[in-house]
Amino acid sequence: MTEPSGVIRQISWRDLFPWLILLRTFRIAIAPSLLAVATVAVLVTPLGWRLAHLIFLRGAAPELAVPAPAAFPQAANSELRVKIPAAVRGYFPAATTAILEAYFDLAEPLARFFQLKMSLREAAYYAFGTLWTLALWAFPGGLVTRRAIVELATETAPALAPTARFAGRRYLWYALTPLYPLMGVLLLAAPIAFLGLGLRISLGFGSVLAGLVWLLVVVAGLGALWLLGGLLFGWPLMWPTISAERDGDPFEAFSRSYSYVYGKPLHYFFYVVIAAAFGALCWAVVAGAALIVQEFGFWALSWGGGGEAVSELRRQALEVAAGRLPPAETGRGFAVGATLIGWCVALIHAVRDAFRFTFFFAAASAIYLLLRHDVDEKEMDEVHLE
Questions:
Q1: What is the C-alpha to C-alpha distance for residues 195 and 380, in angstroms, rounded to an integer?
Q2: Where are the domains of the chain?
Q3: Where do the H-state alpha helices sit in the chain?
Q4: What is the DSSP letter of 41?
Q5: What is the spatial distance between Cα 105 and Cα 136, in angstroms, rounded to a whole number?
Q6: N or C: at which end does the chain have fewer Cβ atoms within 10 angstroms?
Q7: Dihedrals phi, psi of 19, to nearest 5 degrees
């Protein structure tokens, strides 16, 4: 007996909904080797900002002389986050999501550079911090994106050593590619800055001179809009481009990221919303797991040491983990113990925060493959393999 035609025996959900590969990024992000590399970067990042603070802001005005790293630009004090339009913000989850937190951690230093009222000290501080952040995260970002690209394409996790060698060989490309559009913005801004010198000579003369050529300034602003828009939204796609393509040079990363951002903006936005929603769930799992690991020891210790003593020890340890030393009146032995425990707690927090970055780069890699399929009609498994 012949089977009736038109009967569906099996549905290929990945072909029907290609964006389901975003759900595979959690497994990649929690790989111990990737978390270890990202944890080191999380721990080292504040050191560069502290150095920048000592070099450029030490002895500055009181409002600038804020001890680093508490004040360095990051997701916790992001000014870029509050500038997201409400119409866009409504699509993202209200809960903390790993992908957005990592994005603001990495993008906020550059956003601070574009302030109207900023001294030369502040400009140097933010420029140094931005270059430090970019140079530091270029290798972990390359490592994670290469691992994610290969695993998403072949469904097989590559070995750590060849992946690290690949990221090391292309390190300069990872580090320099986001600077190319920024250099274009600075070239557009240089003549306008020179025009502003007229305001220092004479406020009236400078204003008239600026007004006469302001139409040209508007044209330069359109060019800056194109460059900054592509950089703001496209830089997460630059590193996956370098990790996925055979050439993978800065020019290809620049052209592909801008092509995908401006060619399929709604597709890009849809994928980011899905990744943000999934990232909120993943962050809840990781943050909850880190909290259990942190609190289990205190709970078990309280059965032998008493709740009151352990509660005070826990409070002091959390102070140390936050970067504050325990008070001297608590006793030297107590302070030493709280400090040692606080360092362990800080390590737990660093590993937890490292997950935000590994998930961010893994999700960016998946989004890159999806956009490449939409724009260039390339299959997901068409990636450069050595």
A1: 49
A2: 22-290+352-376
A3: 13-16, 25-29, 32-52, 86-89, 98-112, 120-154, 160-169, 171-176, 179-201, 203-212, 214-244, 250-263, 265-305, 307-321, 332-376
A4: H
A5: 13
A6: N
A7: -65, -5
Residue in this structure with the two tokens 């691992």, named with its chain if needed = 147
Q: Considering only CA atoms, which of 132, 26, 103, 128 is closest in space to residue 355?
A: 26
349 — alpha (psi -120 to 50), left (phi > 0) or beta?
A: alpha
Q: Which pairs with CB-CB distance under 8 Å and at least 24 residues apart come from 272-275?
A: 272/99, 272/367, 273/91, 273/92, 274/19, 274/22, 275/22, 275/25, 275/99, 275/363, 275/366, 275/367
User: What does the pLDDT look like over 313-352, one tens digit per residue?
Assistant: 888 888 888 877 766 666 777 778 888 888 898 899 999 9
What pLDDT was estimated at residue 71? 67
131-181 pLDDT per residue, tens:
999 999 999 999 999 999 999 988 888 899 999 999 999 999 999 999 999
- Residue 82 CB: number of other CB atoms within 10 A? 7
pLDDT in tens, 9-33: 666 656 667 788 989 999 999 999 9
Closest CA to 180 of 225, 142, 220, 231: 231
Phi, psi angle pair for 9, to nearest 5°: -95, -30
What pLDDT digit, counting tens, does each position of 275-323 carry?
999 999 999 999 999 999 988 988 888 888 777 888 888 888 888 888 7
User: Could you say which DSSP state residue 92 is in?
Assistant: S
Q: Are 349 and 135 in contact (CB under 8 A)?
A: no
Cα–Cα distance for residue pair 163/112, rounded to 1 Å: 33
The three-point CA angle 278-280-286 to 5° equals 105
Is 253 a residue whose pLDDT tops 80? yes
Burial of 10 (0-12, 13-18, 19+ CB in 10 A): exposed
Residue 82 host element (H or E): none
The pLDDT of residue 274 is 93
Q: How many residues does the chain have?
A: 386
pLDDT of residue 327: 64
More confident residue, 34 or 60: 34
Helix (H, G, I), strand (E, B) or coil at 238: helix
Q: What six digits make up the tokens of 371?
A: 């956009």
Instruction: Please report, to the nearest 10 degrees, the dihedral formed by the alpha carbons of residues 338, 339, 344, 347 taken in order.
Output: 140
Biggest CA–CA distance in the chain, Å, is 96
Kindly tell me the burial class for residue 338, based on how many C-beta atoms sit within 10 Å of its own C-beta (0-12, 13-18, 19 or more). Answer: buried
